[in-house]
Write a structure and sequence with these properties.
heterodimer; A: alpha/beta; seven-stranded parallel beta sheet; B: five-stranded antiparallel beta sheet; 13 helices; 21 strands; binds flavin-adenine dinucleotide; binds NADP nicotinamide-adenine-dinucleotide phosphate
Chain lengths: 253, 458
């Protein structure tokens, strides 16, 4: 059960290799979390982080195969993981691909891969996840969206639009779940130094997975609906949102 | 239209939380009207089980059952039998102490009462509640002569401390987990009047407060101190000690002697239905506490106070829990042995230092423990305080306090807990395994469960 201060005892992590997700789960294991399921494309690659979580005090840590693009498998995957572990207090949806924007502008396959992972894949797995959580009568879904979805930029609008779709879906989903005991928290990080952004020039206000993880843990404790990481991005984005198009497209962002 | 008595209504899915408003969960809320309904409902309990609920005054998740069934017991209210000559009554488990007192006090009788009248008798037994008089009278459960329990296994049992001590003392303080209490028979305290004769003292710091309690508590049937958690430095732990006895007839002014048992409490304030979070902050609390402390004179003897004012101060503000805003609050209550005064000091110090706004910090000395397996009170100091959630350092702060409490041989109150670590439970409640054995026998198929039971792996 989630306790009064937002600490879960069990977590299902979709995209278990994500650096942001792992930083978050490490903090949760430091609090009350004892059961962790890391789901990823290559479960073998998750054995090292799984061992680390055990060393931190988690008693049950499992790695399972999950591919966001294999949408046909999602219902069975969710049914399976809930029936073998019981309740999940928290489902952390962390998978995502940045993709190659330049390529995606000319190659439909690359554009489809980005949207199919970040948006379609997420929606596809959220449908059965929500059913399972509604049935257990409690639980929190944490979704990694992005500031990139807040306003599409010419430099990464394929990724940005996929996150915009996910973000909008989750806003509506959260509202639809009021009164069910299930809630949705949307996380909008800025530039985070992880595998995903390796080799890229850091954007202003760039941050680390640990900072995002702290923001997530604090948001859980407060019962937040939207979390920005780092926090000042909320104000930056609320200003950027109103910059006129003609000016926005000339900004070096 | 007459309600269909043959089959109890299936109920509605609703979101339930405890009095603190944290960690809500959804369950099917049903309303049994009689003993047979309880049986019918438990026999058809869903996969995720069932739990009884009274007036939802437990701060924690004790009366919630996510994805399962919750039995709202408040319709099973009323006096079933009474022997007023001897001060014994039998009531339905859903009877509230408020209703009961409105009926009993004018007749010269008084029950064990916690800090609110808005609890049911079932809830008072399941939490084995204590009041300001614990050092003199013990807990509510110690006054129960017998109770009827519908178990998860399908039995209807009459439990008494003499004939079925194990099952009785597992049920008293058992957080509803041994089954649904249908009714209870218990002893009352005779009172000459409905007023309290109260002595109040302003104490300059924690030492002053604690030594006065050690020295003088036995002269009073009721005793409790309010601590100003926002006072620092030399005034750390300053507070107001309020102690009293039921007033005798000869202590009443002449005009009250004609109706010595008059009792008609009303809320004097109603909190607004929605409050933004964060309104209760250190500044507003500091101002409030300063006022509260200044209000009491240095020493004030023999004041006559109403039962409502003395015992149930918070009931005078209806829905006061809403002032903490939508994110809710937790109550932290622990007890440590008499010689562990230091643990109390550290707790007060840490909580003052952290600037965690606390509306109330209540200090009391408990008398000896009873045989209740999960009953909270043990002899020593108990401190209780409310803290709004959302402060990022709060989980760690409370975890450290748990460590101090455990180190001192103490425990936290499960009906108020909503965040302690399950791995500490056996150390806090050494009879936990006995409780588990009795529970397993009464409910072999695990029909009865709650969010609290899941969270703490009870
Ligand atoms: C302002 C305030 C002051 C308080 N002061 C005190 C105090 O001084 N001392 C103290 O000890 N407590 C105190 N409490 C806590 C309160 O007395 C207990 O939590 C009590 O159990 C609440 O009773 P309820 O009827 O509201 O039960 P609920 O909160 O609805 O349920 C509490 C527990 O009782 C069980 N239960 C309820 N009915 C039944 C039944 N018929 N059969 C089996 N189990 C049942 C539930 O399953 C649950 O485990 C206070 C609470 C508030 C809000
Ligand atoms: N880093 C940032 O700057 C930033 C900013 C805002 C939002 N975000 C979002 O935060 C989330 C976590 O990102 P991160 O920074 O932690 O990056 P990361 O370490 O690269 O994690 C992304 C994870 O997604 C997984 N994944 C990709 N495609 C998948 C698929 N088809 N099926 C299953 N899993 C798949 C990856 O698994 P493999 O190991 O198998 O590749 C990887 O574990 C992402 O949703 C990302 O969009 C990141």
């Amino acid at each position: 059960m989630n306790d009064a201060l937002g600490s879960p005892q069990s977590v299902l992590c979709l995209g278990g290799g994500s650096e942001i997700a792992l930083a978050t789960v490490r903090k949760l294991v430091g609090a009350r979390c004892r059961t962790v399921v890391l789901a990823g494309r290559d479960p073998g690659a998750l054995t090292t982080p799984a061992k680390e979580l055990r060393d931190l005090g988690a008693t049950t840590v499992e790695t399972v195969a999950f591919d966001a693009l294999e949408v046909a498998s999602h219902d069975a995957f969710v049914a399976d993981v809930f029936s073998s572990h019981g309740d999940f207090d928290l489902v952390l949806l962390a998978f995502g691909v940045l993709g190659d924007q330049d390529l995606a502008e000319t190659d439909g396959a690359e554009a489809r891969r980005i949207v199919a992972t970040n948006f379609i894949g997420a929606v596809s797995v959220l449908v059965p996840v929500v059913q399972a959580l509604r049935k257990q009568g409690h639980g929190t879904i944490v979704v990694l969206s992005s500031v990139a979805g807040e306003r599409a930029r010419k430099s990464n609008f394929v990724y940005g639009s996929s996150k915009a779709g996910l973000d909008a879906y989750c806003q509506g989903l959260g509202d639809s779940l009021v009164g069910t005991g299930v809630r949705v928290m949307i996380v909008r990080p800025g530039f985070v130094h992880t595998k995903m952004t390796e080799g890229m020039a850091a954007a202003p206000l760039s941050t680390t997975p640990e900072v995002v993880a702290d923001a997530i843990v604090t948001g859980l404790g407060r019962g937040s609906e939207i979390v920005w990481a780092p926090a000042p991005l909320r104000f930056v984005m609320s200003a950027l949102r109103h910059v006129p198009r003609a000016m926005f497209r000339r900004l070096p962002v | 239209m007459r309600p269909d008595r043959a089959s109890v209504q299936p109920g509605d899915d609703v979101l339930l939380s405890g009095w603190g408003g944290t960690a809500p969960s959804r369950a099917r809320l049903t309303t049994p009207l009689n003993d047979a309904d309880v049986g019918t409902l438990l026999d058809a309990a869903p996969e995720r089980g069932a739990i009884a609920r009274g007036l939802g005054r437990a701060y924690s998740d004790a009366a919630q059952n996510a994805g399962g069934m919750v039995l709202d017991m408040t319709a099973m209210a009323g006096v079933h039998a009474v022997h007023l000559g001897r001060g014994i009554v039998t009531v339905g488990a859903g009877t509230s102490l408020d209703a009961l007192m409105r009926w009993l006090v004018p007749r010269g009788w008084f029950p064990i009462t916690p800090g609110t009248r808005f609890v049911t008798v079932g809830g008072a037994i399941a939490s084995d509640v204590h009041g300001k008089g614990h050092h003199a009278d013990g807990t509510f459960g110690q006054h129960v002569r017998s109770l009827t329990l519908r178990t998860g296994g399908g039995e209807v049992l009459t439990l008494t401390p003499e004939t079925t001590p194990e099952r009785f003392w597992a049920t008293v303080g058992g957080l509803g987990l041994t089954g649904v209490i249908l009714d209870a028979t218990f002893d009352l305290i005779p009172i000459e009047t409905s007023l309290m004769s109260v002595d109040e003292e302003r104490c300059r710091d924690l030492d002053d407060l604690m030594s006065r309690m050690v020295e003088g508590d036995e002269r009073y049937r009721y005793s409790v101190a309010w601590i100003d958690c926002l006072a620092r430095g030399a005034s750390l732990g300053r507070g107001i000690l309020g102690r009293g006895n039921h007033a005798r007839l000869d202590q009443l002014p002449k005009e009250r002697r004609r109706s010595p048992h008059r009792f008609d409490p009303k809320p004097v304030l109603v909190a607004p239905p929605f409050m933004p979070s964060g309104l209760v902050n250190t500044l507003s609390m500091r101002a409030f506490n300063e006022l509260w402390f200044r209000k009491a004179r240095h020493r004030h003897e023999g004041t006559l106070q109403s039962i409502g004012f003395f015992f149930h101060t918070l009931d005078m503000v209806e829905g006061w829990n809403r002032i903490y805003g939508v994110s809710g609050f937790v109550q932290y209550q622990f007890v440590v042995p008499d010689d562990a005064q230091e643990a109390v000091r550290i707790a007060v110090e840490r909580l003052s230092g952290a600037g965690t706004a606390s509306f109330l910090a209540v200090l009391k000395r408990f008398g000896p423990q009873n045989p209740g397996m999960l009953s909270f009170p043990t002899s020593g100091w108990t401190l209780a305080l409310d803290i709004p959630v959302g402060n990022p350092g709060l989980p760690q702060l409370l975890d450290r306090l748990d460590d101090i409490v455990l180190g001192a041989g103490g425990r936290v109150y499960l009906s108020k807990d909503s965040r302690t670590r399950p791995e500490h439970l056996a150390q806090m409640y050494p009879r936990l395994d006995e409780f588990r054995e009795v529970r397993a026998k009464l409910d072999p198929n695990g029909v009865i469960t709650s969010d609290l039971a899941r969270r703490l792996a009870l």
